[in-house]
């Protein structure tokens, strides 16, 4: 089971990383095109605003999920290191993780509600607007999963018995 989860984590990490790279490259290409067309007006890119919004939404939320996976999201490391030395430090760290899980669950729920409620379409490409909003609950589910995994890891570390070193030979 552990090997399966590690492989799934590796695949999901690669997916998040490559999707962020592709979104960024798409943004860079379209924005470069928009700038160049201002100097050499050979075509109209009226659709570019919608694609830029779409790519930016997915880049931001998939990037947040990738940061959450790597524990690189905003948090105050100095306090966590201080808490680790306290007797109940692991419990404080677990409480912080539980608050994070609660926030991400609420974020995921309400962003799902927003996505389902979105019935409008984009004005130029006529794409359903929920494609833009779907980045939020999709990334939220990933962040909830990683928060729960981090919490389980914290509990395991908190209750791990110290390794008993064998007595040296006499």
Structural notes for this entry:
It is built from six helices and no strands. The mean pLDDT is 88. It has one domain (2-158). It is mainly α and 170 residues long.
Question: What's the quick description here?
Answer:
The chain has helices at 2-39, 48-69, 77-85, 89-117, 130-133, 135-158.
Topology, pairings included?
Layout: H1 2-39, H2 48-69, H3 77-85, H4 89-117, H5 130-133, H6 135-158
Helix pairs in contact: 1-2, 2-6, 3-4, 4-6
Key terms:
single chain; 170 residues; mainly alpha; 6 helices; 0% strand
Beta-strand fraction estimate: under 5%
Q: How many structural units, i.e. domains?
A: 1
- Our count of helices gives 6
Instruction: Tell me the helix content.
Output: over 70%
Total beta strand runs: 0
Uncertain spans, ≥5 residues at pLDDT below 50?
none
Estimated radius of gyration: 22 Å
Write the H/E string, N to C.
HHHHHH
- Rounded to the nearest angstrom, the distance between the terminal CA atoms is 42 Å
The 3D shape can be described as elongated
What is the makeup of the main sheet? none
Find the structural class using helix and strand composition: mainly alpha
Mean pLDDT score: 88
């Amino acid at each position: 089971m552990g090997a399966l989860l590690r492989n799934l984590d590796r695949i999901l990490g690669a997916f998040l990383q490559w999707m962020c790279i592709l979104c960024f490259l798409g943004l860079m290409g379209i924005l470069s095109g928009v700038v160049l067309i201002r100097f050499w007006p050979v075509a109209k890119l009226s659709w570019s605003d919608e694609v830029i919004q779409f790519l930016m939404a997915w880049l931001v939320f998939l990037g947040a999920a990738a940061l959450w996976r790597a524990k690189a999201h905003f948090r105050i490391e100095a306090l966590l290191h201080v808490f680790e030395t306290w007797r109940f430090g692991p419990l404080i760290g677990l409480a912080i993780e539980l608050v994070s899980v609660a926030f991400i669950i609420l974020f995921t729920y309400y962003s799902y509600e927003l996505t389902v409620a979105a019935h409008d379409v984009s004005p130029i490409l006529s794409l359903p607007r929920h494609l833009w909003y779907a980045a939020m609950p999709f990334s939220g589910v990933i962040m909830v999963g990683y928060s729960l995994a981090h919490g389980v890891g914290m509990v395991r570390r908190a209750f791990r018995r110290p390794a008993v070193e064998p007595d040296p030979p006499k």
